[in-house]
Specification:
The protein has 288 residues and is mainly alpha-helical. 77% of the residues lie in helices and 0% in strands. Helix 1 (2-35) runs antiparallel to helix 13.
Length: 288
Amino acid sequence: MKTIQTKHTGRIIAEALSVILFVLFMIPFAMVVLNSAKTSKEIINNALARPEHWGQLFTNIHLIFSNPTVDYVGAFWDSLVITVVSLAVIVLFSSMCAWVLVRNRTKWSHILFMLFVMAMVIPFQVLMYPLVRWLRVMGDFLSFPLLGSVHGIVFAYLGFGCPLSIFIFHGFIKNIPYELEESATIDGCSRAATFFKIVFPLLQPIIVTVLILNGIWIWNDYLLPLLILGSNGTVQTIPIAVTAFAGAYLKQWDLILTSTFLAMIPVIVLYLFAQRYIIRGMVEGSIK
C-alpha cells in the first residue's frame, strides 16, 4: 500500500514539475507574441500587458518589410538557402560516414568515431578565431572567398553539425540488418547503389530527427553567421537582420520582437509537423 502511495505521490510531483517547466519555457514565447502587437512606447510602459489593438501586429510587419535600412525579405531568403543547403550536406555526408564506420569494424574506424564524439564537447568559443583565420587563408589559397559567402558558412555548418549527426546515424544504422546489404551485393549492386537504394531509404525517421535538430540550430544561430558573414555583408541571416533594429541610441522594440516572432513561425510549423518523426527516430536510434 505504501509503495502504491509513494508511486502516486512521485507521479504527482513529476507532473507538477513538468507543468512548472512548461510555463517557464512558454513565458518568453508569450512575451514575444504579446509585444509583437504593441508599439515601442506600449512595450516600455508595460511589457506584460495585453495589446490594446492586435492590428498593430500587421502595422509592425509592414514597417519591417518597408524599412529602407534592413532587407528583411533578403535576409529571410538567405537564411532559407543557408539552412536548406547546410542540412542537405550534413545529412548526406553524415549518413555516409556513419554507414562506413558501422560496416567497417576496424581499430581505425573506432578511433575515428571516438574523435567525432570528442568533437561534440569542444566549446565553440575555442574555435572562433582559428576558424575565421583558417577560412581566410583557405579562401586566399583557392582564390575563392569563403568569408562573407554562402559557401563559407555552409562549410562551417557542415563541420560543426557532422559530429552529432554521425553519432545519431551511427546508433541507428547498427539496427539495420546487414543481410539486406549482402543481398544487394549478390544481386550486383555497387557500394554506392547499396547505400542509396537500400540503406538511405531506411534512415527516414532518423533523417527527420537530424534535420529538425540541426535546422533549429542553424536557423536561429547568430554568432557563427556574424563571424563569417559579418553584420554589414551582402549575405545576411535573420538573426543578424534583427539586430539592425537595435542601434547605439535607439532600440525599436516593436520591430525587434515582431521580426523575432516572424522568424519563429517556420521553425514552429516544421516542428509541429515532424515531432512524431523526432520521437520515433530518437527512440529507435537509442535501441541496440
